[in-house]
Design goal:
- The chain is 41% helix and 23% strand.
- It is of the alpha+beta class and 231 residues long.
- It has two domains: 1-27 and 205-231, no CATH class; 40-172, Gcn5-related N-acetyltransferase (GNAT) (Aminopeptidase).
- The strands form two sheets. A seven-stranded mixed beta sheet has the order 3-4-5-6-7-2-8.
- It is globular.
- The two termini are 34 Å apart.
């Protein structure tokens, strides 16, 4: 609150969410984080709710296998990502974006970015990217097909990523953005329940702020963006 007040006094203004339901255009203000520091994997798994524990067992019994992929698997990930975008009504980034992301981040550190794929009966049902900086691990982008959801590939995928984050000595496994409301009518409430079901806690950041170098152009830009969202 003190930093926010100092920013306001200097002429900065908090950016209104650019997406629906509290999600900002870039970095989410509200995230869900699972603490790993000082906890065993048994303790982490013990923090899951009953649904999560049941779904992981279902995936194991069904034979879901989660493996690490490489840059050659980004196309497979992207196919699932586009399907997810159509299903969840968001605009997907292009495949070239993820290829550039992989190249740039792995140039810093070969293990900075990882890709995981959940296989079942010869088909990839879910995939996700994981990023690591220091002792903080992020679930970055996720994708899945609507087929065979009963084998719970999403839970298996996240559990493998949490196990690997724990093995690397991470203090935090960050699920990233969550909605800022508990309204039962909110279409993203299921996503919030999924993430907090893994024993995560809601964390609020300062959010995104703008400093208008040209106030007239800044107001015009915000007006145009608001009209585009309404249409």
């Amino acid at each position: 609150d003190d930093v926010a007040e100092r920013l306001r006094r200097m002429g900065w203004r908090r950016t209104e969410p650019g997406g629906e339901d509290g999600f900002a255009a870039g970095q989410p203000r509200h995230v869900c984080q699972v603490p790993l520091a000082g906890r065993s994997l048994e303790e982490v798994r013990g923090g899951f709710n009953q649904q999560w524990r049941r779904n992981i067992k279902k995936a194991e019994k069904a034979g879901v296998k989660v493996v690490r992929g490489g840059p050659e698997d980004l196309g497979t990930f992207y196919g699932l990502y586009v399907e997810t975008a159509e299903r969840d009504r968001f605009v997907p980034r292009p495949l070239a974006y993820f290829r550039r992301m992989w190249t740039a981040l792995t140039a810093e550190d070969p293990d900075r970015m990882r890709l995981y794929l959940a296989h079942h009966d010869g088909e990839v049902l879910a995939a996700a990217t994981m990023l690591t900086v220091g002792d903080h691990v992020w679930y970055s982008y996720g994708a899945s097909t609507a087929r065979r959801r009963e084998v719970q590939p999403g839970n298996a995928l996240q559990w493998r990523m949490m196990c690997d984050a724990h093995e690397r000595g991470a203090d935090v496994y960050d699920f990233r953005g969550i909605t800022d409301t508990l309204d039962e009518d909110n279409r993203l409430l299921g996503l919030l329940r999924f993430k907090t079901g893994a024993g995560g806690e809601a964390v609020e950041y300062l959010g995104e702020w703008d400093y208008a170098l040209n106030r007239v152009l800044h107001r015009a830009l915000r007006f145009c963006l608001a009209r585009r969202r309404r249409t």
